[in-house]
Structure formats: structure tokens, C-alpha cells
Specification:
Translation Initiation Factor IF3, four-stranded mixed β-sheet, 77 residues, globular
Length: 77
């Protein structure tokens, strides 16, 4: 499934809660249905983004872990 990325956020090297705070800020400038791609390195961000998605209603489209980073796709509700 090809997803159109509307905005990208580089949160690599940041620890909790900074990736979530920066994501929240980035989403405020986006329209409903737009997709935000987040690059992170904090292993704890996997659970943080799951909780963030549930609490805010912004669907997490995917979470992919590679050797050195985690890539999240979130859609603005």
C-alpha cells in the first residue's frame, strides 16, 4: 500500500517525551487525513506512539523498526 507522506519529522537522537511533543506540534499544522512520517531512535517511542495514537485518535498507520531507527506513519484525524 503506497501512502502519500505530507510531512516528515526527524526525532532521531531525542528521548521521551520529545518525539511525542514534536509530533503533537507537527500535527497542529496539518490538515485532516494528511500523513506524518516520524523518524525516531528511542526504543521506548514504540509504546509511546501506540498510546499517543489511542489517546488522540490520530491513527498509527505503521511502525517499522530497522537496525538504527524506527519509522512511524501517523494520520491526522
Amino acid at each position: 500500500m503506497a501512502v502519500n507522506i505530507d510531512k516528515e519529522l526527524d526525532a532521531r537522537g531525542l528521548n521521551c517525551p520529545l518525539p511525542i511533543l514534536r509530533t503533537k506540534k507537527a500535527l497542529t499544522d496539518m490538515g485532516s487525513g494528511q500523513v506524518l512520517r516520524i523518524l525516531a531512535t528511542d526504543p521506548g517511542s514504540v509504546k509511546d506512539f501506540q498510546a499517543f495514537s489511542r489517546q488522540t485518535g490520530n491513527p498509527q498507520l505503521s511502525s517499522e523498526t530497522t537496525d538504527d531507527q524506527i519509522v512511524f506513519l501517523l494520520q491526522k484525524k
